[in-house]
Amino acid sequence: MPLIRNTLDCCICLLPADKEKEIGFERLFQEIQLSKTPPCGGYVRLRMETFEKPILYANHQGGYRVCCPNCSANVAREFSRAVEDWRKGGKRKMNCGACHSSFLLEEAIGKPPFAFSRAAIILSDVHHASLGEEWISRCDSLLKEYRIVYRRVG
Ligand SMILES: [Zn+2]
To answer: pLDDT tens digit string along 37-71?
Structure first.
């Protein structure tokens, strides 16, 4: 019987959430395509995706925590309820059940990190859960603001 395993995707998500893709983003994509020493020690597939509205990039397997940016309380339940509302057309906002502060969904602190983004470079089935130092500094110089999200798929 073949061994079934999860694969890991590395998503380089452009921030802030509503931003359109920028020139540096396309440059980065081309550099990854042409590189002989690719990020994450290698990958199986590479693509760039863009959306009219932000989508949530997150790891949905193996559990995650979401913390309030004001009081650090665990707001995972409020967060997933707010994400459901947002997907039905509601605002991208939520309230903390502990300190009652109100904040944008992207201000909540995900552990592991998540991102709301309209543009991402997806490296599918990566070898390592790290871009590597060289690629981190390339991202830093080409992109103004971004977040790396790893997600298990399969
Ligand atoms: Zn709070």
So the answer is: 999 999 999 999 999 999 999 987 777 899 999 99
- 107 and 118, same structural domain? no
User: What spacing in Å lies between the alpha carbon of 143 and ligand 1's midpoint?
Assistant: 31
Contact between 153 and 78 (Cβ < 8 Å): no
SS (H, E, C) 116-127: EEEEEEEEECCC
Same domain, 56 and 8: yes
Specify the pLDDT at position 91. 95
- Residue 46 and residue 12 share a domain: yes
Give residue 74 CA to ligand 1 midpoint distance, Å: 8
Contact between residue 8 and residue 125 where contact means Cβ atoms under 8 Å apart: yes
